[in-house]
Amino acid sequence: MRIGELARRTGVSERSLRYYEQQGLLTAERTPGGHREYPEKAVDRVIRIQELYAAGLSSAKISRLLPCMRDSDGGPSAVATPKLVADLTAERDRIDRMISDLVRSRDTLDEVIEAARLP
């Protein structure tokens, strides 16, 4: 599929897809006319990349992580290195801290909203 179709199917801009390719996160074949051609599995790959970015991982970490994941279901492959596992554990811990902070912020907002509703 061409880049425009991949962009439509994933909701990711063509510019982002080109960036993913530059970062080594996504690969495309080139037609004789120079157009990018992506395989069907690129849809799952792009969705996975988006999920990892949303989790706060950098493109460098995503680049190290992707070979350790199956595109079709996002499950783990057997090629993770101990360093990658340690890095990902640290990322998970960071996300857990962010979740805790967000829950505290939401609780504070709930208290303010409740206090404002009182006569």
TrEMBL record:
PROSITE patterns from the UniProt entry: HTH_MERR_1 (PS00552), HTH_MERR_2 (PS50937)
Top-rank taxon: Bacteria
Keyword terms, alphabetized: DNA-binding
Span of domain HTH merR-type: 1-68
Gene3D superfamilies per record: 1.10.1660.10
Pfam families in the record: MerR_1
Cited InterPro entries: DNA-bd_dom_put_sf, MerR-type_HTH_dom, MerR_fam
Annotated SMART domains: HTH_MERR
Protein name (Swiss-Prot/TrEMBL): MerR family transcriptional regulator
Lineage: Bacteria, Bacillati, Actinomycetota, Actinomycetes, Kitasatosporales
